[in-house]
Amino acid sequence: MPKSKNQDTAPYAYEGLDRTLHEKARLGIVTSLVSHPNGLAFADLKKLCDLTDGNLSRHIQVLQDAGIVLVNKGYEGKRPHTSIKLSAQGKKQFLKYLDVLEEIVKDAGDALKSAETGRQPKPG
Asked: Considering only the top CATH level, what class is 19-117?
């Protein structure tokens, strides 16, 4: 993953850490959707993420506004049915976000090892 332009002066700034995805509930929602490419029913997503109706609705709205998820509202018989699916853009954004998280884990591991050995970690 390419480093930010401030890498030399701020190696731990992590510019690519997406705040929309980083929020705990939204991270759970998107992670759930990644493993269900055809999407999930609102009720199933609510259960998987342990959220209330209102809380899930609000987070889905934020993700939908950001183009990360697609929402399909319809009916199954006479009952309303809402399904949520990760968009192509959302998948790309999430993969980019995971790259940044991997960078953070690597940097933290390197820093811990350096602290244990008394050596300075290598920047970048």
From this structure: mainly alpha
